Amino acid sequence: MDIFVLTSEQEGLPRVILEAMLMGKPVVASNVSGPSELVVDGETGFLVPAKNPQAFAKSILKLVENPTLRTQMGENARKRVIENFSIEKYVKGVEGILYDELKMD
Predict the structure, then answer these.
(1) How many independent structural domains does the chain possess?
(2) How far is 78 from 103, CA to CA, in rounded Å?
C-alpha cells in the first residue's frame, strides 16, 4: 500500500488513519470531524470534501504521479504520529483527566 484512503462521511477518531500514518503512508480522507484532526492537509495527505469522488480521485492521482510528494507526505505523517499521538501522550492525558476529577471530589 502506498496511499491510505478513507472516504467516510462521518467518523469519530479513526485509529486506522494513525496506523497508516505511523507506517509512513500519506492519507487522503474526507474533511470531516476525526480525519480533519489527524491529517494536516497538504502536509501529511489531503482532506477532500465528503461525497466528492472527483476530489478523491484528483488527490489520489496527484500522489500516484508524484512519488517524491508521496514519500515526503508519508514521512511527515509518521513524524506527526510519533510527536503528537504516542501511547505515552495518550496515557498521560487520561491520567491528567482522572487526576483532575479526583481533585474535584
Answers:
(1) 1
(2) 36
pLDDT in tens, 10-68: 998 899 999 999 999 999 999 999 999 999 999 999 999 999 999 999 999 999 999 99
- CA 53, CA 79: separation in Å to the nearest integer? 29
Cβ neighbors of 28 (< 8 A, separation 6 or more) are: 3, 4, 5, 6, 45, 46, 48, 56, 59, 60, 63
Place 105 in a pLDDT band, splitting at 50, 70 and 90.
Answer: low
Q: Provide the edge-to-edge strand list for the sheet that holds 4-6.
A: 4-6, 27-30, 45-48
Distance CA 19, CA 70 (A): 17
Q: What is the CATH number of the domain that holds 45?
A: 3.40.50.2000
